[in-house]
Structures are given as C-alpha cells and as structure tokens.
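Run log, item B.
One chain of 289 residues. Sequence copied directly from the ordering sheet:
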Amino acid sequence: MASPPCARGSRPLPRNTPGGKGVYYDAHNHLQDPALAPHRAAIAQALEALPLGGAVVNGTTEADWPLVTTLARENPRLLPSYGLHPWHLARRTPHWQAHLLAAVEATPACGIGEIGLDRWIPHPDLEDQQTVFLWQYRLATRLNLPASLHCLRAWGPLWELLRDEPPPPRGFLLHAYGGPVEMVEGWARLGAYFSFSGSFLDPRKTAKREVFRHIPPERLLVETDAPAMPLPPALQRHTLPSAEEGTPLNHPANLGVTTEGLATLRGWALPEALARVEENYHRLFGQAP
C-alpha cells in the first residue's frame, strides 16, 4: 500500500487572515452518529455559517466506516478517520483488519481513529484493547496517517505502550485530553497534539481547564466530539433534541463557542486563537492545497 498524500482534493480551503472572517476547525467529531441523522441538513447549514474550515469525522466500528466515507465525499472539508473504538471491540468481525485496510486504501487521505484504551467501562479487557490499539497505531505510523487517540483512566498503560513506540511522523491527537499536566511535556515530545473540548467549560471542570493553560501553543487543537460531550447548557448557541433515551446531544456548530472558550482561557484574542488552531490542524491532518 502506497503512502497517502498529505492534502485532500484540489479544492482550496478558507484561511484565517488578519481582518478576515474567522474559520473554525474541529479536530474530532462523530458526524456519522445515528443520533445526528435527522438533523444533518440543519447541522450542515450551521457549520457553513460558522464557517467551518475543516473537521475530522471519526469512525468507531466497522459498521459506521462506510458512512464516514460517504460524508467526507459529500463535503471536502471533512476528513474521514477509521478506527475500532475500545468500547466496541466485542462487536468486531474476524475480518476487521482487512476491512480497515480496505477503507484506508479506498480513501488514502484519511486518519486512523478513534482508537485507544479505556478502563472506565465495566470489566475492561485491557490486554485485548492493547492488541487492537497497537495494530491500528502501527498502521498509522507505517502510512504516516494522523491517529486520534481515546484514553479514559488508562494514561499510565497508554504511556507504557507508546513511550518507545515509533509515532506517525506527522504526530497524533490525544482527543479531549484528560491526563495530568505532568504528562504533557512527555506526550508533546512523542508528537502529541491535545484537543480542547467544550465540555471543559463546565465551571466544575477547573482542573481540566488548568491543564490546557500549560500545553504548548503549537500543540493545541479544538474539538466537539459531537454528538458527545455537550457544553454547559448556558453556553450552548446551538441545540439539538435529546436522544431517544434522554441523552443530551452536542451540536457540532458549538465549535465556535468552544474555540472562543479556549481563546479566553489562554488570554488570546479570537483571531490569534483561530490562526493557531488552523496552523496546528493542517500540520497534523494535512495542508490545504
């Protein structure tokens, strides 16, 4: 399999320029999630109005990878990413590796994710998680694809796995980074980027926000994780009806207020925050032509 190109398509993406209208970048979401299906047309309009410069759509199971591909083909601002999430390992087929390789071969400008380790779920099989994760991470390294990593209550095991593991040359994303501030320097040396979640704007999450004051500016990104990790209700500019089971949904266009929240946290004017995020986004996920 040939190494894929760094850029997507031939259509130029908008740029953040002094005096221009800000352009926003979402480093991690799940626009393919069935909970968003009834609202996709309205969501697309809201993102166009934001405006959206680029977004990474992360698959989590073999079943949703085709829809991730479809959404990215319909909108060149979306970068497809394919991964087997640690929550869904029991659902994988015996041919999951072949299916993942086929998705990557069919869409070579892509990412690997969402992949990772999770000890928050009941009865986690960490050994199985590590085996599946490492296979996917090594694929990202071999093809120099950006990897989007999930980690809950497993920062020590993840560090032990990766500290001597060659990373993708372009780096990898620790999505909605929730690890300790003491690990930031080490992760950055390994090539990590760290994405800020709007859920961290909850007044009760002071500790998570404090970590993001110490992340190197050249390693900062912004994410929504939509439809997961909603912002505090008082901060939401865009809302969606709750899922059938009552779970609150995060509207992807809340990317705007999330980016503003990070700018305020770091003491930056919004244009500076937008420009930094844009540069970091393209460095990790691919430059616009």
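Observations after the first pass:
- The longest helix spans residues 126-143.
- The chain is about 35% helix and 15% strand.
Flagged for discussion on Thursday.
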